[in-house]
Specification:
90% helix, mainly alpha, 2 domains
């Protein structure tokens, strides 16, 4: 019987969690289309720059290691 009680508490807390999460999501100020496009552009440009940086860093370190080991 205790198992069923704990199972009921588990389900009620799960449903309570989802209900509270839904209520919090309604409070969020979602970005409009213009903001979303600008944020997306910032993220894509940042990813491109970081990718170029690490690619050049990797090529540089690889060249140094190759030069040392030859």
């Amino acid at each position: 019987m205790a198992f069923l009680g704990s199972l009921k508490r588990g389900f009620s807390s799960t449903f309570s969690f989802f209900g509270e999460s839904w209520a919090e999501l309604k409070k969020v100020k979602w970005p409009n289309r213009k903001e979303l496009v600008s944020y997306t552009i910032v993220v894509v440009v940042t990813v491109v720059f970081v990718t170029i940086y690490f690619t050049l860093l990797d090529l540089g370190i690889s060249s140094i290691v190759r030069w040392i080991t030859e």
